[in-house]
Amino acid sequence: MFQQNGRMAFAGCAGILALTSFFATNALAQYGGTGSSGATMGSQAVFNRNYHAGFDRPEAWGMKYFASSSLLSGLTPPVSSEDHHFGSISIGIESDWLPSLDTGQRTIGFNGTAPEDLNKAPIFARAVVRIGLPDKFTAIVAAPPPFHVFGVTSHLVAFGLERPIVERDRWSFTWRGYGQLGTVKGAFTCPDSALAFAPGSAGNPARCVGPSADEATLRYVGNEFQFAYRIPKMPKVVPHAAVGGNFIAGAFQVHAPVTAGLDQTHLWTHGGTFSSSAGVSYLFSKQVSFTVDAFYSPLWVQRTPGGPDTNDGLFNVRALLNYTFR
User: Quick one: pLDDT at residue 195?
Assistant: First the structure.
């Protein structure tokens, strides 16, 4: 049985690696060049520039920071071996704290010289649906509400597939593969707050003359392994820990009216990250559970050209309230 489970886990990992290769190939094929071009729309100049940002550049740090904040990581509701069955359905509400970024962290535009409006939402919330598949596999789909809130509009869909590799009475070892597609839209380059200042001033360094309609693409694929342990004298409390590896393919499309015309610069990046989480689940009943995780992902960035790479990682706390229907 263990060999069979191992083969299935290996097959799942191979599938995720194939998806990773697809994302990398697709990113390179779609955004394989750099350059710039100018056009005129009526009396307005339009600047279309396409840049690859190295994975340690400030712009890339912003993309991988927010992609990491939406990783489908950890927060696995505790399920006993006898509760794994085909057709089971559970619905959860996930809420993740998004730490406020200081001025230095928000200064990521133009290779770390211009601030962006990144402190829009204090939390990231989404619905999580889990469906039991044959042979103890579970499919996961998660998405935030697709309407305008906190100044942004999210069109993100995360998906995953998980399965216990080893299960014992008191502990389990589980594999999960996951990915995400979609975008987040908002006025990051030219927020309303910048328009109160003169173009080119310290409060408006991007020379904005109107609010921008920027779009961040947050794509990733990854693998994660989780260990959970049931405390004998406290059967309702289940501590757990997880580690994962991720491939992030991010892009940022500027759409900003500036004094020179319409800036439509396109930035893209891709690279690998590591993530970890640890937390505890509490079982109110066989149907209802509440899970809290502490999440951390080290993220390297070169804040100044020619300067050293420093770790400015993401640490946050995540929670999931889950209800199982059957």
Answer: 94
Amino acid at 14: A
pLDDT the model gives residue 146: 92
CATH of domain 2-324: 2.40.128
The domain ranges of the chain are 2-324
Average pLDDT of the residues in 47-55: 91
- 123 DSSP β-pair partners: 97
- Res. 45: pLDDT tops 50: yes
Residue 15 · residue 225 · CB < 8 Å: no
**Is there a contact between 140 and 159 (Cβ–Cβ < 8 Å)?**
yes
CB 13 within 8 A of CB 177: yes
Residue 299 — very low, low, confident or very high, per pLDDT cuts 50/70/90?
Answer: very high
As a whole number of angstroms, the distance between CA 138 and CA 76 comes to 11
pTM exceeds 0.90: no
